[in-house]
Amino acid sequence: MQLAIFPLPIFLLPNGVTRLRIFEQRYIRMVKEAVQGDGFALSLYQEDNEFGTSGWATWVKIIDFETLPDGLLSIDIQGQSMMKIDEVWYEEDKLRRGNLSLIPHWSPEVHSEDTLDICDELKRVFEHNPQYSELYREPHFESATWVCQRWLEILPIENQEKAQFIQPNSFNQAKHFLNNIILG
Hints:
Order of helices and strands: EEHEEEEHHHHH
Shape: globular
Number of domains: 2
Distance between the termini: 42 Å
CATH architecture of the largest domain: Roll
Number of helices: 6
Radius of gyration: 17 Å
Structural class: alpha+beta
CATH topology of the largest domain: Archaeosine Trna-guanine Transglycosylase, Chain: A, domain 4
CATH superfamily of the largest domain: LON domain-like
């Protein structure tokens, strides 16, 4: 699949939502194309790579947008699935585009006993951070997968450390990691 690629220092997993401010012309073009087509790929920015991208991305769709008082465009994006970046190139205006292929991530899981405490803690985060919780119209606190994905997105740890959990078989490792960090 061929998509525009937006490298940012944002860690986003499937079903995750984040808000972006768009101001560069190449990314305004990307948004116009994304709304009319298949979305775009959000890649974890890596300055040591020629194109500033990692080897993977999250395929995102735009779920809301508005023009801000300062004239900039604000978009809310939601992760759809994980993707492997197979090839990247620059277009004339320096918009990155690439060939990407879908890769599996964690399968949806029913809430389990060993995630009840981190689920309760995430509910508290949502209650105390309305700007974050307003992004999620339908939170899925009953899903251990969803809860662990949201924790990985918001925890203040290095994105490179978080990246070890993009593998499809890393759910149990992530669950253990999160329990240790959040609950001590």
